[in-house]
Write a structure and sequence with these properties.
The complex is a heterodimer. In chain A, 43% of the residues lie in helices and 13% in strands. By secondary structure, chain A is α/β, with parallel strands linked by helices. Classes of the chains: A alpha/beta, B mainly alpha.
Chain lengths: 431, 328
């Protein structure tokens, strides 16, 4: 009896580890995802898109360069401590790259990946100044980061106001965390440059109660509200904006505040809400035909298959696509299919994604072309603006890609990364 | 009237309304604690589970569809019908009663006379189980809850205050309805507790399990009853909070908002939950209004607990809690 119990307990512990040990020769890309907890609604579609793309490569192409890709999943629940545990638990399996979908986890992993020699890929999130490859050798955040997002939002507002924001009031409503605070410095600099007043309104996580902040918006009457939210904070903010009748076209969220999940609960009230978009969405891309054939219809989808084509599914798929291309590049550079973590980093650093390549991948005009380099781990940083049509229940892209204001951003990136280098006694590379 | 005073009044009123929303969650905790001495960690998840079930039933969603599809290769999602809100609410209430019965049968009856900490830990397990069950049954996507409750600014209050002060106050229609519903709930629960046979039995069990058993009160029935009522209160809280933010898994975190209310109002008083909610709601909103801009904002989450702790210094049992005197 005791023996049986011990065996059962051992089996339970093995099962609770939550991931399978990959075969030794496989390419291993752990998926630090969150399918449970308060942020699951965002984590699930992203994780599904991420997993499904690698499944597509395995099923259709036999992997990357003939090597199958294993994507062991580990649940972080968007919790930084659990995220670090997941990293520690999976890195020994031959992990090539991590994409934890959490700025908090990213900050904790930055020193760890440098010590362990594993790439950290944080598209559209994480530490912005990691765009400086001279300091952050192991971190990549192309095609765009938070500071790019802040700058693109302001450039959009400049376009809307005949090129001047002089005397305008802009409120930044943000998740009171490392993530939400990221754009503050940039917006402060941009407010000096363009003469607008910036009000900073933090909201504590998870953000179910935001009445104080929206009463303040109602009293102060800012011309525009920029929004850095995540999870329930997004849908509540959009509902509260509708409640106080804030003009939705003047309410702009970062790309993490612009999914179907965020606008659906507010119904008609969300009509006209805008958000940044760093890639296209919807099903109008040839890659979806392959996904349907090889993954969804074959019963190999990571989730229920009901998230395909949504904003966050597309983003997870995009992240997987970039990682796959970086691995492919690493294989090309080093002449071997079974690349290791260090070689994959080289792939990330020399990665070039052209529009022609995006067409080959079945994603024409989906994302901006970019070319990384030793110094540039951040990419061009351009983003589009999308607007929610509540009647049609879809996002419409209302601009093309808008480039950020590098004149303001580059010195900020240099300053922040220099401070990090000094704190951590890092010698700049790429000289 | 100075603008700051007007704004402070508006903030206070909204704080009172927010406090009632917190109290709706706190009521569920109080009911169970009062009847069984259990601090029900799962109360927030009960609200989530109730709201998920309500939306699922209303929209004709097939429960466990993902599991069925994955197991049998089917493509089932919805039954193809939708239910009127009243019918869906009634059916959800039935589900919550069934859940209360199951909790009593599977969890509580095995833990009679165990230390309170054991019962508390059982509710922690229950919370995680129910969260997972809700996910598997209804999916983790965010759902819009629409039972016909109006939302947005109350035009009458806006117009009246504008005519009187030159500044229209914002009060959300949903909050006004929540206040009304909370009032009715408290009245009904108080009458039930004071003037009905089962209410008196419930209070007897709360005072002493074994003494209540000795006079023929069925402990099991009382526990099913009280968990059913707490499930119904959770349904009401789930409707109000779900209408506000959509039904999503963070709904369970509303329990965090109820804790300072309980600390302040006492764990055993139904009116205490309401008064505690009002004090916490108004206190946190006023503090944010006056002190927030000076210290960087986002004060509400922590200030609610500071306020509750300050009250505890002077009344450890909470404002309305029972003072426990033990002779040694």
């Amino acid at each position: 009896m005791k023996k049986t119990f011990t065996l059962l307990a051992a089996a339970a512990i093995a099962a609770s580890a939550g991931f399978a040990t990959p075969a030794a020769a496989d390419l291993v890309v752990p998926n630090l995802s969150y399918r449970t907890g308060p942020f699951a609604a965002g984590g699930i579609p992203y994780a599904d898109g991420f997993m499904d793309y690698f499944t597509l490569l395995n099923e259709r192409d036999g992997g990357i360069g003939g090597e199958k890709v294993q994507v062991p999943e580990c649940e972080t629940a968007y919790n930084t401590e659990k995220g670090v545990e997941c990293y520690e638990a999976t890195k020994g399996q031959g992990a090539l790259v991590y994409n934890p979908l959490s700025t908090g986890i990213t900050y904790q992993l930055i020193p760890k990946v440098a010590a362990d020699g594993i790439t950290l890929y944080t598209p559209g999130y994480g530490r912005t100044s990691a765009a400086n490859g001279k300091v952050f050798e192991w971190v990549f955040n192309y095609p765009a980061n938070y500071w790019d997002g802040a700058s693109v939002a302001v450039k959009h507002l400049l376009d809307q106001n005949g090129g001047s924001l002089e005397g305008k009031k802009i409120a930044l409503l943000y998740h009171n965390s490392a993530y939400g605070k990221e754009p503050i410095r940039t917006l402060q600099e941009l407010s000096k440059k363009h003469g607008f007043t910036l009000a900073e309104l933090p909201i504590d996580s998870p953000g179910q109660e935001q009445k104080s902040q929206w009463l303040q918006v109602r009293r102060d009457k800012p011309d525009y509200v920029l929004f850095w939210g995540w999870g329930v904070m997004n849908s509540v903010a959009i509902q509260e904006a509708a409640n106080i009748r804030f003009p939705m076209e003047n309410f702009i969220g970062i790309w993490w505040s612009g999914s179907e999940n965020d606008v659906t609960p507010a119904g008609e009230g969300a009509n006209g809400y805008k958000s940044l978009a760093m890639h296209g969405t919807g099903m109008d891309y040839p890659v979806y035909a392959d996904l349907k054939k090889y993954v969804i219809d074959a019963g190999k989808a990571a989730g229920a298959g009901d998230q395909v084509g949504s904003v966050l599914y597309s983003r997870g798929m995009y992240a997987a696509m970039v990682i796959a291309e970086a691995i492919r590049k690493a294989q090309e550079i080093h002449g071997t299919a079974a690349v290791n973590a260090k070689q994959v980093r080289d792939g990330f650093e020399q990665l070039e994604i052209t529009e022609a390549r995006m067409v080959e991948l079945g994603l024409p005009n989906f994302g901006q072309p970019f070319a990384a380099s030793c110094a540039d781990h951040g990419g061009p940083g351009a983003a589009m603006i999308q607007q929610w049509d509540a009647a049609a229940k879809k996002w419409n892209l209302i601009t093309g890609f808008i480039a950020p204001d590098d004149e303001v951003l580059n010195p900020l990136v240099a300053e922040d990364s220099a401070a990090f280098a000094k704190e951590n006694t890092i010698t700049e590379r790429c000289n | 009237m100075p603008d700051t005073l007007l704004y402070a009044i508006e903030v206070s009123l909204n704080g009172l309304m927010a406090g009632i929303m917190y109290a709706l969650v706190a009521l569920g905790f109080v009911l169970i604690f009062k009847a069984s001495g259990i601090f029900n960690y799962a109360q927030g998840v009960l609200a989530l589970f109730a709201a998920l079930t309500l939306v699922g039933l209303q929209q004709g969603q097939i429960p466990f569809a993902h599991v069925i599809n994955a197991s049998f290769g089917t493509d089932l999602h919805h039954f193809g019908w939708t239910l009127p809100a009243v019918v869906a609410i009634a059916l959800t209430a039935v589900v919550m009663v069934g859940l209360a019965w199951a909790i009593e049968r599977i969890v509580l009856q095995h833990l009679v006379n165990q230390a309170p900490i054991i019962l508390f830990m059982a509710t922690i397990g229950l919370a995680y189980f129910l969260e997972g069950l809700g996910d598997v049954m209804w999916g983790a996507d965010i759902k819009k809850l629409d039972v016909g409750l109006p939302q947005g600014i109350n035009e009458t209050i806006d117009a009246v205050t504008f005519n009187a002060f030159g500044y229209g106050f914002f009060i959300d229609n949903l909050d006004i309805i929540a206040a009304f519903v909370a009032g009715v709930l408290v009245l009904a629960l108080t009458l039930f507790s004071q003037y009905t046979k089962y209410g008196r039995a419930l209070r007897a069990v709360a005072d002493d399990h074994q003494a209540a058993l000795s006079v023929g009160i069925s402990l099991r029935f009382i526990w099913v009853l009280v968990w059913s009522i707490a499930g119904f209160v959770a349904l009401v809280a789930g409707i109000m909070w779900g209408s506000k933010s959509g039904v999503q898994f963070s709904l369970s975190l509303i329990a965090l908002k109820a804790l300072p209310v309980l600390m302040l109002g006492g764990f055993t008083s139904i009116p205490g939950a309401i008064v505690g909610g009002l004090i916490i709601g108004m206190g946190e909103k006023l503090f944010e209004f006056f002190a927030g801009p000076l210290i960087g904002g986002a004060t509400e989450n922590w200030f609610a607990y500071v306020l509750a702790l300050l009250f505890l210094v002077f009344r450890p049992q909470g404002l309305f809690g029972e003072k426990i005197i033990e002779r040694v």
